[in-house]
Structures are given as structure tokens and as C-alpha cells.
Amino acid sequence: MQLNCHVKDKFNQLRRRIQDLEQMAREQDKESDRMSIQAEAESQRRQMLSNQTAWRKANLACKMSMDHMAKDELLREGEGHNVRARKATKESLVGSSSNITESLMSISRMMAEQVKQSEDSISTLATSSRTVQETNEEFKSMTGTIHLGRKLILKYNRRELTDKLLIFLALALFLATVLYILKKRLFPFI
């Protein structure tokens, strides 16, 4: 009875982990992340259902075996078998029960491993989700910096054009002045 409660607790833990995975999938922004998390949740759900089926079959086999042995014992007692035969039947019943208990414990361990794998998957997915969000934030900040740099470069290009124009005008005025002075000095009569 205690083993059944333990196994049911493990199944409930695994169900909660699968629901956490499904919730995490619904919260994802990227479709590829959402699909991979949903695939992992579905895989975990299939494994849980497989374990549940195996546990139920083992439990049913145990009950059937115990019932069968109890019937055999009753029939033997009715036929007048001696105490030694009953003792052997009880020992075989205990041995069979022990084997089935071991089988159920094995299933319980498998379920515990599944719960652990599910926890690891959730933590890995949460870490990767955080990394993606941090990368997205960095990208947004770099986009702002790139836009600011573009504006500064455009402003610098306009200033450079203005400076070139002013230098050209200043050079033209200087040359015109030099030509005017040369003309007045060399050809004063013109």
C-alpha cells in the first residue's frame, strides 16, 4: 500500500513537470523554441503513460498471482495436504510477492529518473530561454547604437560637404583677389 502511494506521488510529480513544460512552451516567443519544448513535453508524456501502463500491468499480475496462489492453497488444504505443503505454498507466495514488489520498485525508480530528466529539461530550457531573451535585449540595444552611429555619420558627411564648399569658395576668393592684385600691379592701365 505504501509503495502504491509512493508510485502515485511520482506520477503526480511527473504530471506537474510535464504541465510546467507545456506552460513554458506557451510562453515562448519564437516558434522553434515553442515547438521543441512541446515535443519534449509530448515525449515525457508518452514515457509517463508507458510507465503507468507497465506499473498497472505489474500490479495486476501481482494481484492475479496472489489470488491464484491463494486459490491453490485453499484447494490443497481442502484435499488434506500437510503443513509442509502449506508452508511451501506460503513461501512461494512470499517469493512471488517479493518479486512483484521488486518489479514495482524498479518501475518507481524509472519514474524517478523520468522526473529528474524532466526537471533537467525544464532547467535547460529555462536557461536557454533566458539566454535568448538576453541576446534579444543586447540586439535591441545594439540596434539603437547603430541608428545613432548612422545619424552621426550622416551629420559628419553633411559637415564635410559644407567644409569642402567653404574651402572651395575661400580658395576661389583668394585666387580672385590674387588675380585682381596682379592685374592692378602688372597692368595698371587696364
Describe the protein in words.
- Helices cover 94% and strands 0% of the residues.
- The chain has 190 residues and is mainly α.
- It has one domain (2-143).
- Helix 1 (2-27) packs parallel to helix 3 (83-186) and helix 2 packs antiparallel against helix 3.
- It is rod-shaped, with a radius of gyration of 43 Å.
- The mean pLDDT is 82.
Write the layout of secondary structure elements.
Blueprint: H1 2-27, H2 31-78, H3 83-186
Task: Write a compact overview of the structure shown.
The protein has 190 residues and is mainly alpha-helical. Helix content is 94%, strand content 0%. The relative contact order is 0.09.
Which keywords apply here?
190 residues; mainly alpha; 3 helices; rod-shaped
Q: Counting H and I runs of at least 4 residues, what is the number of helices?
A: 3
How many angstroms does the end-to-end distance come to?
Answer: 127 Å
Q: How does the overall form come out from the CA principal axes?
A: rod-shaped
Tally of DSSP β-strands:
0
Number of domains: 1
Following the backbone from N to C, one meets helices and strands in this order, namely: HHH
Helix share, percent: over 70%
Rounded mean pLDDT score = 82
Low-confidence stretches: none
Which percent range describes the beta-strand content? under 5%
What structural class results from the helix and strand content? mainly alpha
